[in-house]
Amino acid sequence: MLEILIHGAVSSAIYAMLAVGFTLIFGVARILNLAHGTFYALGAYGAYFFTAHLKLPLPVAALLAIAMVALFGVFVEKVLVRPMRRSQLAVLMITLAVALVVEQALFLTFGSEYRNVPAFVETKFTIGGVDVGGQRLLALGASVTLIALLWIFIQRTRLGSAILAVSQDPEAANYMGIPSDRIFSIVMALSAALAAAAGVLAGPFLTVQPTMWLLPIVKAFAIVIVGGLGSIPGSILAALMLGYAETIVGYLISTSWTEIVSVLATLLMLIFRPAGMFGKRAAF
Amino acid sequence: MSALIEVSGLSKHFGGLQAVKDVSFAIEPGEIVGILGPNGAGKTTLYNLLTGFIPYDSGSVVFKGRDLRGLAPYRIAGLGISRTFQLCRPFVGMTVFENVVVGGLGTSGGGGSELDAHAHALLRQVGLGGKEQLAVETLSYGDQRRLEIARALAAKPALLLLDEPFAGLGSGEIADLSALIRSVHAEQGLTVMLIEHKLREFMRLVDRVIALDFGEMIAEGSPEEIVRHPAVIEAYIGRGDAEAEEQTHAA
Amino acid sequence: MFGKRIDTAGALGFIAFMAVLPLIFGGNYLIGVLTVSVIYGIWAVSWDFMSGLTGRENFGHSLFIGVGAYTAGFLNTTFGFGGWWSLPAAMVMAMLFAVVIGLPTLRLKGPYFALAMLSSAVIMQRLMLIFWEQTGGEEGINGIEPLIRSQLGFYYFALAVLVLVTALLLALARSHWGLILRAIRGDEATCQAAGINVTFYKIASLVISAAFAGAGGALYAHYQLQVSPQLFAVVTSITIITMVYVGGMASIYGPVGGAILLVLLTELLRNFGEWRLMIYSCTLILILFFLPNGLIAPTWRRVKAKLGRPE
After folding, report:
1. Which of A101, A109, A270, B1 is the most exposed place for a label (fewest CB within 10 A)?
2. Residue C255 to residues A231, B23, C37, C249, C263: CA-CA distances in angstroms?
């Protein structure tokens, strides 16, 4: 029981980081970024590459990986997505194409075997009789901290208010002197950084291979549908629900069934309440 | 003669806001009835309730003797109620002619040459005869309004709901459109409901006026009676002279 | 009317060309490539009919393809039915799936519908792996019987199916069905206000699209003589959408050319081995930037315009 509580929390935390980034860029720029999963993948691979090949210490490698992925995210948004914004299909297609290109690049560079991302914390802890890897606890703690920081940033800083303004009405924000284009880039960087951080933290205990971007997207989408697109609180709540649902299913039935949970949740939500728990336009 | 449409005690609230409150009226076939009210009075909401786009909380709508509760919008349209929208919504990516044909497809059971001929005739009637093959995006706003009406008429409705058809038009265009509505009404004995702010033209067109404010009916009667009705005057002028000024200027 | 005659002439010319090509150049390799391109053509045309006309992009078309293929596989191997049962059965199964998945998802706006379909395809892929005991897992189903022994014969059969499907969907698209679907793309609420049962048309078009995708899947199963979960992969769906892009969205006939072009491209890239998919994905990005209206349909329209001008 305690096992489920802890492992569910860890899963939820990782999912929350992915979903919050995904819903953030959607809420602000109306971009359904199918390449979001690749930020996660690149974070994990970056940590692997910088430590294994460049022999950098882990904390440096992690920060470097996250920074580079953030820059990559900005590049994708500015160069590839922005010209396509007239058509939502085009945006979907191009982000998906980017995902495929990244997947192939990873495959060609690193091959298809699973790679090892080093963990920050190697030791195992025992809490209430349950064995938990230290890395998992770190992932949980870090994700809660990062999301809280993001929340405070958006609610309390001027830049955060600018972001809120742009999410409501980019044109009006422009008239007020807020450069919505630059805001898009900033939000994309944040979104990518969050996903990359998830990759760095979860890489040690989740599988790292070139196609690892796909399932997170499916799950992020499920979470965001259940929580309501564009709503950060909704995403967090839904991430909790999904994380725990999957963990419970994994324990009671089998781990191979866990993916079905997300899709089932999506389908059920779509049938009964397509706007999600907190509705579509509940910005933040 | 039984009414074409009978509305009793219609109410709808959104969260804490009572958008439509206990509205009741009946419209006889062949009438042109105007719905008057300041912005936010619930006029478009009323249309949405009548046409099935929004479900109502209580009350009833009976059309041609048939209760409309629970019917999907397309079924209600199929029974003979057509509407236009406040903002023109043409089918983008299609020609003027195609737009009108689609307008009639829902009720004609499969299209064909009869519908095509009808569409041609309607376009001539609204004055878009030479523009049939144009893409709708290229039409002027006034022409788009005419297209809306042609499209609504293609469904051969018994009752036509117009939502601010004069909005965004210049005075010449308004006169033309008003004449069109009158001619269509006379020719086909169509029953028309009309929401409009442009008071002068409005008063000339309608036989009877229903005035709304805050979702409630505050008055009902002929145009002359309504203009002198204290509640109506308060609703309009009480809102600030600016708005009333603007309306008399625009009319 | 002149335009219609050019169209018919063009179509007949194309069919003749495709029929004669293997006779001139011979060789099983060419027949194989042509067969695959024809099957992709069926998939692309079926996608265009629903998604091109209504603007609801379906990112999970591979779902119906896989369902059709696996139905054929099961019917043929596990249940021992003759190959000719595959096509109708595959179509029926695909149509069932379309109804079940379409009902909750078609009410969603564009991109969400796209992602919901994508998720469905991904999950089907997972399910095939989870139930590996029944479905053969990664290996899939092997030992499917060929439908027609002769390679050339099967090619002609597939070509005939392509021609039939394209003609049928083109006719539908030009009928009032097509008008309604395009109007739905324009403004759903107004369609409702005009008395059109929008939900019915959306689901019906998805069902029709799925039926032919499934048929293509069955053909594929009897060509490859095996089916695997890879059929449900995202790559398949995206490839098909790319083919439609190249062909010209909503043209119905354009995707046929798009399919052939892209299959040819894939074959040419075979020499690049591992780099194939990478080059393919980059090409996709380039196409998205530089050919937003496609290649085939706009070119054909220009040809027609030139021919239509009096000398």
Report:
1. B1
2. 39, 54, 11, 8, 12
Task: Read off the pLDDT of residues B3-18 as tens digits, 9 standing for 90 and up.
Answer: 888 899 899 888 888 8
Options 1.10.357.10, 1.20.1070.10, 3.40.50.800, 3.40.50.300; CATH of B5-80+157-250: 3.40.50.300
The 10s digit of each residue's pLDDT in A193-230 is 999 999 999 888 888 888 888 888 888 888 888 887 77
| A–C interface: beta-carbon pairs under 8 A | 104
Q: Between chains, do C180 and B91 touch, taking CB under 8 Å as contact?
A: no
pLDDT tens digits, residue range B93-131? 899 999 999 998 888 766 678 888 989 998 988 888 888
- Model confidence band, residue C95 (pLDDT cutoffs 50, 70, 90): very high
- What CATH class does C2-303 carry? mainly alpha
Burial C220-240 (b: 16+ CB within 10 A, else e): bbbbbbbbbbebbbbbbbbbb
Contact residues on chain B for C183, CB-CB shorter than 8 A:
91, 94, 98-99, 102
Question: What ranges do the domains of chain B cover?
Answer: 5-80+157-250, 93-154
Whether C288 and A97 have beta carbons less than 8 Å apart is answered as yes
Q: Which residue of A has its CA nearest to C129?
A: A256
Model-level pTM? 0.86
Count of alpha carbons within 13 Å of B94, Cβ hemisphere only?
28
Tally Cβ neighbours within 10 Å of residue B246.
12
Identify the sign of the CA torsion B50, B54, B58, B64.
positive
Task: Domain ranges for chain A, please list them.
Answer: 2-212
Distance from CA of C65 to the nearest CA of B (A): 30
Q: Does residue A282 carry a pLDDT above 70?
A: no
CB contact B73 to C (< 8 Å) = yes
